[in-house]
Amino acid sequence: MNFNHNHLLKTLVDTAPSGICILNSDGFIAELANEKFLQIAGRREEDLIGKSYWETFSEVREQYEDILCHVVSNNKAYHADQVPMILMRNGKQELIYVTFVYAPMVDLDGKVHKVAIWVQENTKEVMEREKDTAFNNAMKIDRDRLHDYFLQAPVGISVMTGENLLIEFVNPNYQAMLPGRSLVGRPFFESLPEIVDTDIAQALTDVFKTGLPVSFRDRLVAISKEEDGPTIDRYFDFSYVPRFDSNAQVDGVFNFAFEVTAFVHSRRKARQESNNMAQILDMLPASVVVIRGFDLVVEMINDSNLAYWKKTREEVIGKPFLEILPDLADQPFASQLRQVMETGEVIDVKESPVIFTNADGSIRETYVDYTYQPLSDLDGNRNGVLVMSFEITDRVHARKLLEQYANELTATNELLAQSESRFKFLIQEAPVAIGVLQGKTLIVETANDKILEVWGKTREIVGLPLASALPELDGQPFLEILDDVFATKEPFYANEIPALLEHGGKLKQLFFNVVYQPIFDQHDNVSDIVIVAVDVTEQVNSRKSLEISEQHFRKLSDLVPVKISNALPNGEVTFFNQGWLDFSGLSFEDLRDFGYFQMIHPDEIENFQQGLLQASKTGVPFISEMRFKNKDGQYIWHINVASPVLDAQGELIMWVGSTTDIQSIKEEEQRKNDFIGMVSHELKTPLTSLNGYLQILQLKLKQDDGLAFAEYALERSLKQVRLMTSLTNGFLNVSRLESGKMHIEKSTFDLRGLFKETSDEYRILFPNNKITAKLSDEEIPVYADRQKIAQVFNNLIGNAVKYSRAASDIWVTLEQIGTKARVMVSDQGIGIKQEDLSRLFERYYRVGNTTVSGFGIGLYLSMEIIERHGGKIWAESELGKGSKFFFELDIYQN
């Protein structure tokens, strides 16, 4: 089931008349269980939720673990009816009878990601089955409860039965989605002909045929509410879940549906409104920023404000105002922002100076008109400020310059000529491009060297109309803009406005910050226009070059065979190269939202976090071997280098990650380790026997019968030497050395004879224990590797001695069972816990209740030997009561 909101799923589970438990498919961790399930299980919620299902129900693990794994791997439900089960309930062991279903739950890609367990207890019904009336009444009550639950469920439910999917039940919520239709008693496709020949219809048919559930989310369905009404676009979340009869055969389908048309439209509207707001903010001529809270955190900002602050969006969003612009701490803005939030008053300031300190230590003086307006949350509490500002630096400078000129011009008549000369001198010597255009025909009256340099012209253009002086302006907006200044009497301001100007006979694109300031005569009419221009071509081109360089870096990082990432100091990832995207199978947005840390193997997260903390303090990259989950859900080994990037003050400004796949190297190391462990274990047995014979021979030579025993001991010792030689030659085989696999050389021999032959060695090797053999009366021929089977004998009997008390009995049974030869080694040792039995034969696994030394590879090698002979090996044990080990081989048939 896949509903639009999690609370719908929880409501469905909590109100169900049956016990329900939801497990994830990776580790079978319990995520959700209703009260009915906990009551049947006799467990508390804290004993189950967040833990492995088999940790809570270890007493039934052996019986049902393989079944549950089969449900996940084959995507097919399992049903069991009124089965007996011995369960620990409320601290005591009880025999109960239950009916349960393991049902796989698939995601939109068809992959099983959860398992739903539906269970009902039948103990009372089974115990009182002969009381037919009571039993039938109980069954009717359960059916009535289920029927009442379907009627009251918060989602639409319908039940279809048979191959023609006849609708036998719909609840009120389902009927409300199709109010003008008659549903019950009609085939599903007859009552909803709009979905015939669609993939929805095919999915429903497949559920009935395969028994596999299917779900749809936000699915568009063109369907009418009335029987013959016009179709409209509607959106639904719905699931088709198979219903099974007592023989575990599909006899119907449940349809759980929920209309989400309003939700879909609301999400689309919200996304559109958000997009519209962002576009509107970026189109505004003003600089806009939204600041929240006492710490003055930047929540929203438009491109104009970013350009004024000379910052990127990543550098400001979510950061405190004074952290972004620490050089403004001694200026009034922070206190004014807090004042607006405290009092609710609007602050409106004109021509405020704003002083910035550049990276090289120089000062950037600017002027702005700004307004601070309070913002409130949904409860009416003031928690933010809307800042709207206009940079007027060029206008202020121009106005101040013009005021200076005007002051000079309004001096006494005696100084008029001198003032005019000074005015022209000031224009000429000004550090910015300045020109004066006279009248509507825009005659170039005055032009300083800077503006002539910008225009690419000489002083010969003075006295000409601007259109004649700069003919290349034809088709560009400047002449029209100047006409508007004359007509509206309003100044014109522009930043980074592009212009094509002729320099040396060629058109050259330049960028300017310009002010067209009208000059008025005594009648308040525009008589002249002063042009003030600042060439910003170099800055614009530098920014564009930086953008191109960043694009080149991203393309280059996608080509290298290494996964590269970039993150902010707080861990937010800003870049994944194509290698990461291919590895994870996700888009950048999905991978960023999915979370980098969720790809890391859980066992390595803590060490990785500590390494990052140390690297951020020392500035030294943190290098580690880590496992990351790929798109197939497999953990792959990598060398990960997390490099901190520090600024001049030693503060962390970003992380650069370089991650290289070393899975093949790890696998090669594992093969070498396996080989070394196998060699050490196989050579141990003949060395132990040889050492035993030599020690006894040394002891016997001091006694009277030493010479009689010497010939026997030397013969047995030479046999062990030959065995070691054979093993050594096998180990030195190049192909085996490379693969780490054991070598099997089969021949036909008598298994009973092999044990009799080695029994003398057991008495020598294990003199403190009594080893009793019960052997078949007849030969038991097998086709196998004689040395390897002897190694299994030695390992099982050696383990029985190792984990038993001195002088305790050990029994060996060899018998023929049908076409199999079965060997049993039994001891009176310490025994094995039930939870350890299933892992005894894993490589390097050792039980936790012993201090006996060893590598944990003997039983693993024994299993490898027996399985490579087509046989099987297993163990039975009870803690404190000894152990029994068995293995079986096929009897050789002539």
Structure description:
The protein is elongated. A hairpin with a 4-residue loop joins β6 and β7. It has a 5-stranded antiparallel beta sheet with strand order 2-1-5-4-3, sandwiched between helices. Strands 7-6-10-9-8 form a 5-stranded antiparallel beta sheet, with helices on both faces. A 5-stranded antiparallel beta sheet has the order 12-11-15-14-13, with helices on both faces. The protein folds into 5 domains: 6-262, PAS domain (Beta-Lactamase), CATH 3.30.450.20; 296-391, Beta-Lactamase (2-Layer Sandwich), CATH 3.30.450.20; 396-541, PAS domain (Beta-Lactamase, 2-Layer Sandwich), CATH 3.30.450.20; 560-661, Beta-Lactamase; 744-894, Heat Shock Protein 90 (2-Layer Sandwich), CATH 3.30.565.10. The relative contact order is 0.03. α25 (663-701) runs antiparallel to α26 and α28 crosses α29. With 894 residues, the protein is an alpha+beta fold. It is built from 31 helices and 32 strands.
